[in-house]
Amino acid sequence: MTTDTSPEPTEPTEPPEPTEDTEPPEDAAPHTDGRDGRDSRDGRDSRDRDGLDARLVVDRGTFRLDLRLSAAPGEVLALLGPNGAGKTTALRALAGLTPLTAGALRLDGTALEEPERRLRVPPEDRPVGVVFQDYLLFPHLTALDNVAFGPRCQGVPKAAARAQAADWLDRMGLADRAGAKPRALSGGQAQRVALARALATRPRLLLLDEPLAALDARTRLEVRAGLRRHLADFQAVAVLVTHDPLDAMVLADRLVVVEEGRIVQEGAPADISRRPRTDYIASLVGLNLYQGRADGHTVRLDGGATITITEDLTGPVFVAFPPAAVTLHPDRPDSSARNLWRLEVAGMESHGDQIRVDLTGELPLLADLTTAAVAELALHPGRTVWATLKATQTHAYPA
Ligand SMILES: Nc1ncnc2c1ncn2[C@@H]1O[C@H](COP(=O)(O)OP(=O)(O)OP(=O)(O)O)[C@@H](O)[C@H]1O
């Protein structure tokens, strides 16, 4: 997701430009929570279910986002996708920072936006909390006042807002940092203050934009675990946007994979990693993925290669297998393996403590080898090798 979270000029602004005396107006409108606020009279329909129910259509030049998103209260969705897929646009549309071109956005049965009816609740009146990638804390306010800002904007008197903020900081394990200004906070602490600030408004929809991207690897591990706990306690819908499959798998109940503005796959993390349906997802979860036609235990790919599988299937299928399941041989092996292909090394790169070898030929594939195996095989780009794969290492499923 891009770091540009600034709204277009025509749109209402998210946290106001910090100034020395940033302070919400005393007469700030009370927040409507979508159940008993003024929105509920014109938007609520008893047939509607709680949670998020949206079709987000946004045109930006030649790009069109068109996603259907729904989630029950307590559910955490992760929007995952390559650069330019439309994740930021979707998050901004949910926050009300980018208007919908068409579709509808409903939260707990209340319509927040419906272009066809010219209905659009401004962002500041939506029960939505946002944690931005770079947190956007007010630099001149203490952690406590940053968190108290939201309740103050909702009309909570100063002392009560500060008491609520202190309570949130306490829950985040930051009671002793309440008086610190953002520049004195570590990355992990700033992330927790930003989360507390979003939660302090008691949102019915929590949006998190690459919540861990600004952190170094070690802090990330710690903060990821903390965030997971807070999201598990959160009773409303949370939507996070990330590039990082690990963040998505750890934090979300359901992944929504977006490519070119559309959902290409959604489901529980385990299902998606077991049954990827696009090359992007397969590479994300580290699998070789092919599409072909099955006839019993044989799958014939479009390019002519065949793969032997253990499942008994008929018709269009996907076949996936991990790079670590591939064995390479310098010469044609005297092997009983049905899956045997003559391939050429196209490239190699480190992958954790293994070397990932990119092979082209009859069945282009990735193979993970130890450094010792790469040395023993004297692998180098252009080298011809034979690859074997046991049928039991493949996983085939209907396309
Ligand atoms: N203000 C804009 N005007 C026109 N097109 C835009 C604008 N902002 C984004 N786009 C286009 O919309 C598409 C989706 O962009 P978006 O930032 O939502 O993707 P993303 O999935 O968040 O990508 P990344 O992970 O790189 O941030 C891209 O093709 C982008 O070029």
Automatic annotation (TrEMBL):
PROSITE patterns hit by this protein: ABC_TRANSPORTER_1, ABC_TRANSPORTER_2, MOP
Molecular-function GO terms, alphabetical: ATP binding
UniProt keyword terms in alphabetical order: ATP-binding, Molybdenum, Nucleotide-binding, Transport
Stretches with biased composition (Basic and acidic residues): 28-49
Signal peptide (UniProt feature, chain positions): none
Biased composition (Acidic residues): 17-26
ABC transporter domain boundaries: 46-285
Ranges for region Disordered: 1-49
A Pfam family of this chain: ABC_tran
Domain Mop positions: 334-398
PANTHER family named in the record: SPERMIDINE/PUTRESCINE IMPORT ATP-BINDING PROTEIN POTA, SPERMIDINE_PUTRESCINE IMPORT ATP-BINDING PROTEIN POTA
Protein name in the entry: ABC transporter ATP-binding protein
